[in-house]
């Protein structure tokens, strides 16, 4: 999920063409070039918002729906039909994450060599086919095999989407767009419940197939059809942006080059500097803790609602308001966070809200259904506060091509191991209390809180050292022109 341009020579050519038209000051260092027309920049950003984002948001929404709709299918008879006893359902969930974690980085490397519009469309098409196949499985081993194949195709869609989005926006423009991206996943959760309700009400038993099979078949078919149109909808790299004219394309590449220069450049790989950066490992653990909550809620909310006393069909409907509120919370909090350019307090807010939800569910004995239902709002809302802001926070504080590429891949790729934990801690024998599930999830959420505090104080300490001149000696070293965020002039965002 690197933010560097895939064809830097082409990018620099366009930048040179653009700055050549700026006048005599074009020879000044890029941080002193202020001749890009603000009206032109606004027009370009608006065009990117209208042309780059919508297809990517649709792609992620469908892929996320294909990943988590097993939770809706489970309560519509799948567990009984293919004998999901004991931990069988948990294994069917976790198997997806094995290729998911292993193949995220290789997928992005492949995408750098191909047109994103072709590669991402092919992956989405594979997701649709695998999802339809789940509607025809007859045994538990068949389900596990198809879920594994689904994970292979799913692996590249998330990081590939973020990678492509990041290519079009400056450092502090990206977080807002990431919040929209995450919100498309929330919409998938709400839409999945609504669609499952409609299918369960109208197609249960049609042509001899129970409702759970139709959930997979119809949703997979929709994904497959949309995937066939995606090569014409998705954009490719910025230097190939056909929706921009020559002037706009040159300006886009120039503003991205200027932004990278002001964010500190690191165009050479430095193993020691990358692997010794505490921010990367703190950010990965922070993400790991909250990913567990997100997957736990997406996989198990339908089952939890049934165990609260709702019918299977009613549970599908009751999940919709949870995701609708989470979408509003996600967009609102991320917008405010961007406005004030602050991350720490908002991540802690999400951790606090989620902790309240887990405490309610751990102490649910004797509580009314309304209180337990409120707890689910807390959990989903917390997940979609913390996840996008934690990703934005690390990306904002990692300067340079190579370190950003590694940091993004590590945080998203390895952090997604939280999905493996979520798949295995909600045990059938513990229903409806799920003490292990709620207890472990609370512990991981609190770990996210601890990592958030650690990140904050680490960044504060580093900013103080830079301000006092303790890092100035780096400007005299052999890598003075390639320091990334270690550059004394790079101020970390809190």
TrEMBL record:
Membrane topology: Multi-pass membrane protein
Pfam family, one: MFS_1
Gene Ontology MF terms in the entry: transmembrane transporter activity
Record's subcellular location: Membrane
SUPFAM superfamilies assigned to the protein according to its UniProt record, in alphabetical order: MFS general substrate transporter (SSF103473)
Transmembrane segments: 52-70, 90-111, 118-138, 144-166, 178-199, 211-235, 278-297, 317-337, 344-367, 373-394, 406-428, 440-461
Span list, region Disordered: 471-494
PANTHER family linked: PERMEASE-RELATED (PTHR43791), TRANSPORTER, PUTATIVE (AFU_ORTHOLOGUE AFUA_1G11820)-RELATED (PTHR43791:SF52)
Protein name: Major facilitator superfamily (MFS) profile domain-containing protein
Organism expressing this protein natively: Cryoendolithus antarcticus
